[in-house]
Input
Amino acid sequence: MAASIAEAARKHPAPEGIVYTYGTAGFRTKADVLDSVLARVGLIASLRSRALKGKWIGVMITASHNPPEDNGVKLVEPMGNMLQEEWEVLSTTMANKATPEDVAEYYNELAAKFKIDLSTPARVVVARDTRASGSRLLGCLVDGLKAAGAEYKDFGFFTTPQLHYVVRSLNTEGTKDAYGVPTEKGYYEKFGAAFKNALKGKKPQGSLTVDGANGVGGPKLTELIKYLPTKEEGGLEIHVVNDNVIKPESLNVDCGADYVKTNQRAPPTSKVGPNDRCCSLDGDADRVVFYFKDSSNVFHLLDGDRIATLVASFLGDLIRQSGLADAITIGVVQTAYANGAATNYVEQTLKLKVDCTPTGVKYLHHAAEKLDIGVYFEANGHGTVIFSPDTLDTINKHEPRSPAQKEALDVLRATVELINQAVGDALSDLLLVEVVLAHKSWGVEEWLGTYTDLPNKLTKVIVSDRNIFKTTDAERKLVKPDGVQKQIDAEVQKVRQGRSFARASGTEDAVRVYAEAATKAEAEDLARKVASIVE
Ligand code: 16G
Ligand code: ZN
Output
């Protein structure tokens, strides 16, 4: 096998002078320098599967919201979680091995280190988004998988959450934790049925326009719609826009969740009317934000914070109405980017506990796993809700004591099914939002009216070395460089309802500064001052 592994590495030589890192979202960079990485990821995925006694591992080829010429790759653990941190480090080391011989040697070294029996089957599921470079990179990945003797299933074009779904379903098939039928159709059937059951006769108002970022989410949503009740059957009218995957160079260009969140405006092509509900997915559909224009043509964003508060309030109502309030508690997990008004609303109005974690889905996910029901969303739209095994058991076994309790319990059970437990899923999340709005008989204005965001400003500062910025307290305070936090605190004191923090980006060579305050002018001024301290 050493020979075949060296051969695969030789076929896809590592370009000189590039250092690769498995970051918060896997390896991600310009697509034309990723061939060697993909071949090596094939080797790592095979080892990871063997280390877990032949469980299915997922490999997703995507660069999410990044420009069309980028690409990336990330690994998925058997239950649909993100790759274990230790293996992120091993993947990084493997990606940076210089020669084919080094690659083969490291492969054997890992096998020895983890006592991996190389005759154990290795099973890997692969899929990709719609980028032009995807098929070439898939070829490189497959070369690595074949060299390692892995069995693999190629699901072709998939959203990232569909891949997570299939991985979890394959590994739980035939057990009491069976998640779903491990096929694309199985995904649509599961979420389609759950949506219908969770609506339970409540009719969604108006329609929803979904911007697919010209990525894989558009055509997959079009497919999912076939499994949803039609408007005539009491379902939701959905219009899919920006779903041009025939032109991969249009991916994420002037559309998509990142565009809308960053620019605080609808895609220029948007043609919807006042108060029409819209949402935007990102390039691999694991992220969603909602928005609308009011009758004065003013744009309003309903971001991840809004989804979290909406969903937490709905689940809280269902738990109480089912008679489960004494047995189950709900918590919300946010990052420092959550608007202060959202945090306040959860604590003061919903009376729920809020945890704050560093940026990155895996941190929120881990914190949410410690709760009975953990609602986690980043402001940028990544997120989902997870239910602990005990909580699921309680919900499944609960005997309602009245018709009203039964009604609420039915909706709660269907809602659990509707939420992708493996990972934040834009398609599942958007259906969840629609279910909540339908039950509350709310439109976007009522949703927006729950609380008023504090004015805020996010800026990016280019520094000579971002690695000197070290944070603590879930990135809310700087411990290094010395004295900087003190200066930030002094500025924050000067404005009303001020809050600000600076952190090194995990995806770009820059430091991000966030500031919020009672007025827009104060928030912008605070951001400017903090940025100049950081510079
Ligand atoms: C990655 C993370 C996302 C986070 C973002 C922050 C995942 C799957 N993605 O895209 O959660 O919000 O990085 O970027 O974890 P930043 O470090 O550049 O601010
Ligand atoms: Zn994404």
Notes: The mean pLDDT is 97. The radius of gyration is 23 Å.
